[in-house]
Amino acid sequence: MNKACPLPLRQYPRVVMGHGGGGRLMKRLIEDLFMAAFGTSAKEAHDAAVLPGTDGDRLAMTTDSYVIHPLFFPGGNIGTLAVYGTVNDLAMVGARPLWLSAGFILEEGLEIVTLWDIAVSMKEAADRAGVKIVTGDTKVVEKSKGDGIFINTAGVGIVPEGREVHPRAIQPSDVIVLSGDLGRHGMTVMAKREQLAFDQELKSDCAPLAAMTERLFREGIPVHCLRDLTRGGLACALNELAEASGRQIQVREASVPVSSSVRSACELLGLDPFYVANEGRCVVFVPADEADRTVRVLRATGEGRGACVIGSVEDRTPSVVVLKTALGSSRLLDMPEIEQLPRIC
Amino acid sequence: MNKACPLPLRQYPRVVMGHGGGGRLMKRLIEDLFMAAFGTSAKEAHDAAVLPGTDGDRLAMTTDSYVIHPLFFPGGNIGTLAVYGTVNDLAMVGARPLWLSAGFILEEGLEIVTLWDIAVSMKEAADRAGVKIVTGDTKVVEKSKGDGIFINTAGVGIVPEGREVHPRAIQPSDVIVLSGDLGRHGMTVMAKREQLAFDQELKSDCAPLAAMTERLFREGIPVHCLRDLTRGGLACALNELAEASGRQIQVREASVPVSSSVRSACELLGLDPFYVANEGRCVVFVPADEADRTVRVLRATGEGRGACVIGSVEDRTPSVVVLKTALGSSRLLDMPEIEQLPRIC
Q1: Domain count within chain A
Q2: Chain B (189-218) residues lying within 8 Å, Cβ to Cβ, of chain A
Q3: Angle between helices B260-269 and B184-193 (to 10 degrees)
Q4: Using 50, 70 and 90 to split pLDDT, how confident is the model at B1?
Q5: Would you say residue B7 has pLDDT above 90?
Q6: In chain A, positions 76-105, which contact chain B (CB-CB < 8 Å)?
Q7: A327 and A197 in one domain?
């Protein structure tokens, strides 16, 4: 190859788990390796690509691979997640999701009935989300060259004319609305994986968010930006948005809802719910005078019934995320170097 | 789950390598499991889905995962393949490929420079094929839960108004034009994998075919059907088309070009070049009176310089593939139960 690899090889000459964790290390791999090789700009980084169209409506495209372990968990399975995760990435750019592709990498020895259950779940999830699985592919690898099943879905949707939902559109004095409580998906999967029994049963929040975000647009709310809170949780999502928008973000810790079951599980495992993955939660950036209406519209949907205002965008530098604690002090809600939880999606 | 799995579980209760091999077993998994679960019809089976559009142009979407082993081979690598393979699936429905997504599943321990070389190859391949990689995703799995790198690409393209390229469009008396000699990709990868040294160096045929097929359309050739000859090779592709079109296909064995190096490698390994995977070859179904022009147009392109007529569509039943041997006898060119070569793409 003529092009020299620009990554600092001395530090990480090989892929480590943290390269897939949603933190700073993954960000560097994406920006310094993939974007450098593909010639794309970090400024374009968003949950889905919005492609130029001939008329006012534009096409959006996104993809995600799913390697979650274990395959089944309370509230869903790898198939449900593969549908909702990709639908949600489309919703986050203001798109109406339409079509999905599904690529399966199966490990020799996977039980056929397991595959069937996953495929049936995908159909149910696609029906609920209003999308069609239109094309697919199946590959098989030898035992111990895979892990049961990996699924990739790519999604295509339409961004209607006039919708400009992007980190660039974030304005000083915007308020940040969170669609529901944090950490259910990550803690449910961790509890299942580690076979922990908690007093209160945990259930993943995984859900399709497109109907909920569509409601915001239909009500005429001027949505500036949307972001779902998957790998790396609320903290990583807000850090990405602070950097991409060049704005400082402030979050009131006491305003962020976390259920008691998630809080107990996090305490037991030494985890911070702000960094735990969600699969049915997003933040919505809207002008301050639209905050109440946004919360009301979100709460009227099933997926957004726990919506509340958690913070605001400030007209100051640096572009970091500041957490205002219940005691009135401030601290940095930093981007972690690596992930807390591997293979959570 | 309420729906019962319709596959004959007694025969294959677990996934075996053959479920990914392009043969009859994979076909059953796709039709009896995925299509049954997703509620899609086998009649729609094509290399890409052609989606309804508002005006004359329609959107096409396709996906493939790539699990080839080894990752690098003479003529390309897993990245080149991931771009060309998906571009070619779009070309086979008459689409102009436009955008690709790229999903990476990395195994812990993969060398970063290897990933860089693959990513750079993908950019070069995308440039050559005239497509853009617009969105991506990275996941990491623990050592021995993957195999270096798996790549999924999904592709989106536009099928211009008036193009109806489909197995259903195959007509009796159509002739079948093959775009070049058979078996290079499969035998190159097998030779590399098994560390076999052959007298003549083998090189994969992997190449983007969209510019070549676009030329056919621009010359006004009434193309009825296109199919690339990947997993399962020419034999599986023609069997699928015979079944999907309900027509009998006849192939003259002596007309099918196979290089001496591929022939020697096949003999050594006990393989039949008609069943070996290609990554830069396709068959073109056209009316008999367009055969000469089709060959001429294909030969004027780099990718189709070895084009020749290899057979025809017959107005008789059953819808099978009949091979006319050099000695004048006939035999069935059957669909194999399982693959000859695992993880060839």
Answers
A1: 3
A2: none
A3: 50
A4: very low
A5: no
A6: 98-99, 101-105
A7: yes
